[in-house]
């Protein structure tokens, strides 16, 4: 049982059981506030009946309508270890797609480490395909490439937005 | 970063300024200053260059020079965009937001039609939270530029006046109705344009509790504006109906929502709540409606228990089919709603409870479906009280029996798959929660712990493919073993269990490197063992940063000083305070963003957030600890006098700046997992107790700091030196009065604290750490410090008297003796061997160290105060010498105080030597102790592989302990040495 509700500042005080997971980044407060101030409808949290935070999703919409790049973007989606394998991530992704549909986006996109097979498989199952590879998108030791994965929404009837690019691109080519 | 906007600037100027901007951006502030000077030489009138210079100066710490430059520019009333922007950045970084207001107010006077200036002024007012002026500016803007957003900025400003008004009546009778009227005017004139405007209307109606009206808005034309949120209208309407107790409509609304999202727990709860509301009121649909074909079946409210159960049953079946078809997880929400219903009915002692079916069966079938998910225990936990205590044992047994595990050679049944591991763990957790483990004897607990450790090792074979970042499947076996050992440790008081737990957890981390539960426990246990050395690595390993410093900092911040790791303390305190300072600024900037994007409902939320962070007890504690630490470790070293430090710290000892009633407790005290029975968990009551004790300790520390400051100011009463001293410009109380007041307050507070019945309350290991209060009181640290303050006051009094009274001098002598006696006693008490022999066994005394740290601190402050006394007595001595020289021949009788002071200094010197020895005695390296070989923790070193790795881990533990104690000893000796050196200079 999950309550999906908008993420609030208060949640920053109690999201530790999610964020202590090594793959979940804790950003500066400003980063969360920016999303809350600008795209609150895209920032949702899943709460268990006991009041624990199970996971959350952050996203935004951006791009240009005339160029047909107006899209929803998944900035972060994360689930605490003990609540995995319950389909929560899928549920939150669906939610984000629904919001993006409401805002008449053409597609939804996200970036994922090429090594993160579990995530890539999950996104594929949810209908996302690799649109392009971004070279050394993640800095670290060593730097790592990202897949830019996309899923077309109903506004993009011909699914033009997800036709894969042949060649990989550099981070500076990505907005 | 310097923002450059200026499209109004001509290209030439831009080219001239570019190098300055570039250097600012790249952090070359000194070069930026030079560049600015160069430009200014040729173009004196270029104001922007001046401001950029000011910015560069500010960033290299020349605040005063920077500020005065900005003021030169302010006088010229600048209106060009680059200058305005640069000034804004400058003032923001100086934290002088009121200057930005002035800047744009002036700019607007010469350009009243400039829209951007208006906006900037409005935002500047947001920064300082001047809601009233915000409202005026917004109104003004809307007049000149009739755009909707500006109008609604005004509405929001009105709401904020209501929300921050201390007068509830004023808020409800004036500001909110005004805001409502403002919006309704726009509605009437059909000028509503955006979703944000409807949202703000609903927000106002919510604050005014006008739910009826809000529903009309949602149902009407305005409701159509709500597009961005998913299901905005139905969700909000359902909430409002529930709030108003319109159960029939609420029930249909939630039923509809639940049909769409059957896993949503909030909907489940509200559906049940509204249905029970109908049942209790014997509600039935009005006759006319019954054959109303317009309403679909799903929309009709459920008003009998049978209808409710049917609905749950139907929905569950539909979902089960869906789940089976798509092979995804069953929705747990709808299934758990039966438990919730049971819980409510039981609470109400309703006879309907029988209709739901046998309780145990319900649990069993849920366990059947979800037992192999790690969340199963968490789902069921709150409903476990539904099972009668007499059924506990057999229920657990029946679950175990149903779990076809494999019998190992050692007679233990092991899980055969990952799913079985999870099921087994779930049963174990339920059993612990029931309190069944508490009923075991100590030996049985130890045996169970051993068994669990074997399970955790066996489980590793399933996790070979797991990544470094994954948790091992059997981690919780190990955690529970440690919890059991904690139980035994606490019951017997034997530390050998502590060492064993440390070894187990260190060993556990070698196979499950990312398990934060193990790390958190290790942190706590090492700290209890007196070793802070391993903590920074563990803490960094948890990657705790940003807001987590506020919520999780408590796990280490108290120990880092109490265990004498002063270098780490300094680093930790600095990063923590950096977070708190920057956060304040950030939150304000995003409030501005919220105005820009019309996300008005976030503004009150941001305000609350800002307040919570600003009043965080952790922030206040770290601030005072950092200052005390600085005085202890740095004052009176290498010519840096106590006076310099106190002046730099800008302490105003006469006033208590802490708003005690507004202090917020942001500690995340649920972060450590526990499956203990309810009555043993960290409760809300415990939280209150813990916060109160933290406040008490904070008060002690603040009073100490303030009295140290007040004492320091005593030496600056002569007119020539008062320039920098706060207060005493004739209006405030004199420094000695302040010191006397603080001494009295500290005295009273310590007496109160000593009598606090909660002082010795035992909190669960998974709760917050204890404060240092108990050790502080036991070591008489407060008493000694108070005596030193009293001596300080007497010495000051003596120094102001014309003919120094003999009585006062002998009082001082007596106080000096008291200080020495009390200190001697405390040192004797805490000077113990690190390893003691007891009944043939060697025991490690982990309690000595925190006691010694407090004594070192106390003695350090005593010495600093002695320095102040010295400064007061020195002129007296010089005067006496002068006098005796004048009266050649006739020897003047020396004042006894000089001899008393000398004796006192000698005694303190001896105390320091004694304390130094005691500190050396806790350094295992100095004592050539190899802790690992002392058999402190009865590990059975057999040839077995697993146990060998455990023995290795225990050895690691001892090595870390040795290193940490050595480090502490070194740091303490450093402090003592520096203070002793200073003491040696205090000759009259």
Automatic annotation (TrEMBL), chain A:
Transmembrane segments: none annotated. Its EC number is 2.3.1.254. The keyword Cytoplasm applies. Pfam families: Acetyltransf_1. One of its GO terms (cellular component) is nucleus. It comes from the Eukaryota. Residues 156-175 are annotated as: Disordered. Catalytic subunit of the NatB complex which catalyzes acetylation of the N-terminal methionine residues of peptides beginning with Met-Asp, Met-Glu, Met-Asn and Met-Gln. Proteins with cell cycle functions are overrepresented in the pool of NatB substrates. Required for maintaining the structure and function of actomyosin fibers and for proper cellular migration. Component of the N-terminal acetyltransferase B (NatB) complex which is composed of NAA20 and NAA25. This is N-alpha-acetyltransferase 20.
Automatic annotation (TrEMBL), chain B:
Signal peptide: none annotated. It holds the Pfam family NatB_MDM20. It comes from Patiria miniata. This is N-alpha-acetyltransferase 25, NatB auxiliary subunit. Belongs to the MDM20/NAA25 family. It comes from the Eukaryota. GO terms for cellular component: NatB complex. SUPFAM superfamilies: TPR-like. InterPro entries: NAA25_NatB_aux_su (IPR019183), TPR-like_helical_dom_sf (IPR011990).
